[in-house]
Write a structure and sequence with these properties.
This protein has about 210 residues and is mostly helical. The protein has one domain. It is globular. The longest helix is centred in the last third of the chain and has 30 residues. It is built from seven helices and no strands. The protein starts with a helix and ends in a 13-residue tail after the last helix. Helix 1 packs parallel to helix 5, helix 3 runs parallel beside helix 7 and helix 5 packs antiparallel against helix 6. Helix content is about 75%, strand content about 0%.
Length: about 210
């Protein structure tokens, strides 16, 4: 089972590289959805056999993080006719180089953490750090508002995986509450994007500085 978990986490790390080099919003959505599905299902593989309630939480989390939120983002794009280019502030090649450095730094930092629970899976904490910081990078290095929202979702995946690293039981309720907040935020995002698109005819956040009081 540990080999399957390590393989899944390696794929998540590779998906971070793919997200940093993605030039199209649909590709970025698929990558973040994949991360959400894998991260949601990991507690089933690394913990004790789940209870019925824990299994229900896990399935609900997977559906919301991997299906409902990505579909909501896709519908928002179609509704407001958003251009599907990512429009980076930092170039894609530089971003991928930053992703490689981030992964190396995440392994270095996690190696300095003295926690017995890290022995549960040596890739868990580095992957969580990579997702968290990687999401922050996307949030700051992309002009497109949708890409920024997807960066926030990646950050939430990292937070969830970090909670899984620390505990496979107690974190479910708290993380599910956070996830519902993210879902509500995505729904609100659709309304905000529609207003931005109507006012500026684009969702490039750099255009917001042209607004006057």
């Amino acid at each position: 089972m540990s080999q399957a978990v390590d393989t899944a986490l390696i794929l998540v790390l590779l998906s971070v590289l793919a997200s940093f080099g993605a030039s199209r919003i649909p590709t970025l959505i698929k990558v973040v959805a994949f991360q959400g599905i894998v991260v949601s299902l990991l507690p089933l593989a690394i913990g004790n056999p789940p209870s019925v309630g824990g299994l229900a939480f896990t399935v609900a989390t997977m559906l919301i993080r991997g299906i409902v939120i990505p579909v909501a983002v896709v519908l928002a794009i179609k509704k407001v006719a958003i251009r599907r280019a990512v429009e980076p502030i930092v170039g894609f090649r530089v971003s991928q180089l930053a992703a490689l450095l981030l992964i190396v730094a995440a392994f270095f930092v996690s190696g300095k953490v003295d926690m017995a629970v890290v022995g549960r899976g040596p890739l868990l904490l580095p992957t969580a750090i990579t997702l968290l910081v990687g999401g922050m990078f996307l949030l700051m290095s992309r002009r497109n508002a949708i890409a920024m929202v997807l960066g926030y979702m990646m950050m939430e995946n990292g937070i969830y995986l970090g909670g899984t690293t620390l505990s496979t039981r107690a974190h479910h309720i708290v993380e599910f509450g956070i996830l519902l907040d993210v879902l509500a935020g995505v729904m609100l995002m659709a309304v905000i994007l529609q207003n931005i698109k109507r006012t500026l005819d684009d969702v490039d956040t750099s255009l917001l500085r042209t607004l006057k009081d």
